[in-house]
Design a protein that fits this description.
Shape: globular
Number of helices: 2
Strand content: over 45%
CATH superfamily: Surface-adhesin protein E
Number of strands: 7
Structural class: alpha+beta
CATH topology: Lipocalin
CATH class: Mainly Beta
Radius of gyration: 15 Å
Distance between the termini: 44 Å
């Protein structure tokens, strides 16, 4: 019983979890694959939020610790009419597909919105998160 209580507490403390996400690949290039968890999509007027995952084919490195980075899972918010986004929170992982050690856990609910560049991973996510209902 105690084991199950610990698991339940851990699950509620980690809003970004790759283990239970229903990831759907939406695109890839020579550097990375982008996937979404469509079940996390929430729309409110001109805003949309959704969880996405960048899975790197060649690992990067954390600028502070120099540890290898193989994936990033984040919750982003999109301003559909302005073609902008901002990260709400994200986790950086040492393994692919959100596996391995958590290198960074960043919460940034007040981050500024940035313009989405054509051809970027954010543009692909935007096109799904903001498409007409």
């Amino acid at each position: 019983m105690k084991k199950w209580m610990v698991i339940a507490v851990c699950m509620t403390a980690l809003p970004i979890s790759s283990a239970f996400a229903a990831w759907q690949e939406i695109g890839s290039n020579e550097q990375s694959t982008v996937s979404l968890d469509i079940e996390t999509l929430k729309r409110d007027g001109d805003k949309a939020q959704i969880m996405s995952m960048l899975d790197f084919k060649t690992p990067g490195a954390d600028p502070k610790t120099k540890e290898p980075i193989r994936s990033i899972i984040g919750l982003n918010e999109y301003l559909c009419g302005k073609i902008q986004y901002r990260p709400i929170e994200y986790k950086v992982f040492s393994g692919n597909k959100g596996e391995g050690k958590v290198i960074a856990d960043v919460k940034s609910p007040d981050s500024p919105f940035e313009t989405i560049t054509s051809g970027s991973w954010a543009a692909g996510v935007y096109s799904i998160a903001c498409r007409a209902q």
